[in-house]
């Protein structure tokens, strides 16, 4: 059973990373998946949260930081050392061709911290700020999904790494959002 899952993972990896390529994706994905690319968005979101919701916006920002901290710790400090899966771009024993587009990164592969962190952020914000601005829910999840896909496309993670990272991050984002929303004084409202 495990061998069949690994073979499927390898086949999907080869398809997404090697066979299904395009020059504009080659140019975009290394930057799209880079966390530094999104710093202006994070700063804008933080500024808008404080401007729009005042002190509740500050608590919202702290909750986002907590969400990322928990997600990153679970992925980087718990999952990766536990499973010790070698990244596809560092694994010379793979039965498939892996195209590396950009740096490979150090450490292990399972679970993808990018996927875990971005899905945790997306789910948390979709459930909290998305209660005020409902239009942002699906774009947030698509954004997180596109970053997770970028990890496979550039060759630093297997599809199962990002799928399980997305699941882990979603659960973390959901749990922290539920705890946050259980505190009426912290909830973001349209008319503050």
Global morphology? elongated
Largest sheet: none
Radius of gyration: 18 Å
* Helical segment count: 7
* Helical fraction: 55-70%
- Note the run of SSEs as H and E: HHHHHHH
Class from secondary-structure proportions: mainly alpha
What is the residue-averaged pLDDT?
Answer: 92
- What count of domains describes the coordinates? 1
Quote the distance from N terminus to C terminus.
54 Å
Structure overview:
The chain is elongated. It has one domain (38-90, 108-192). The protein is 66% helix and 0% strand. It has helices at 2-19, 23-32, 39-53, 55-83, 113-127, 137-153, 159-181. It is mostly helical and 192 residues long.
Name its key features.
192 residues, mainly alpha
Q: What is this structure's SSE topology?
A:
Elements: H1 2-19, H2 23-32, H3 39-53, H4 55-83, H5 113-127, H6 137-153, H7 159-181
Helix pairs in contact: 2-6, 3-4, 4-5, 4-7, 5-6, 5-7, 6-7
Short note summarizing the structure:
With 192 residues, the protein is mainly alpha-helical. The protein has helices at residues 2-19, 23-32, 39-53, 55-83, 113-127, 137-153, 159-181.
């Amino acid at each position: 059973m495990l061998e069949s899952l690994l073979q499927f993972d390898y086949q999907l990896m080869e398809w997404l990373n090697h066979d299904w390529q395009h020059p504009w994706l080659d140019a975009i994905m290394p930057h799209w998946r880079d966390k530094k690319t999104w710093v202006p968005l994070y700063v804008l979101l933080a500024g808008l949260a404080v401007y729009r919701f005042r002190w509740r916006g500050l608590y919202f920002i702290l909750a986002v930081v907590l969400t990322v901290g928990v997600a990153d710790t679970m992925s980087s400090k718990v999952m990766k050392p536990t499973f010790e899966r070698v990244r596809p771009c560092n694994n010379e024993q793979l039965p498939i061709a892996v195209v590396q587009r950009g740096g490979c990164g150090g450490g292990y592969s399972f679970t993808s911290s990018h996927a875990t962190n971005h899905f945790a952020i997306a789910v948390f914000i979709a459930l909290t700020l998305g209660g005020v601005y409902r239009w942002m829910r699906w774009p947030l999840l698509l954004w997180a999904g596109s970053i997770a896909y970028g990890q496979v496309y550039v060759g630093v993670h297997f599809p199962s790494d990002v799928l399980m990272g997305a699941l882990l991050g979603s659960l973390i984002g959901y749990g922290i959002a539920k705890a946050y929303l259980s505190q009426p004084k912290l909830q973001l409202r349209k008319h503050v």
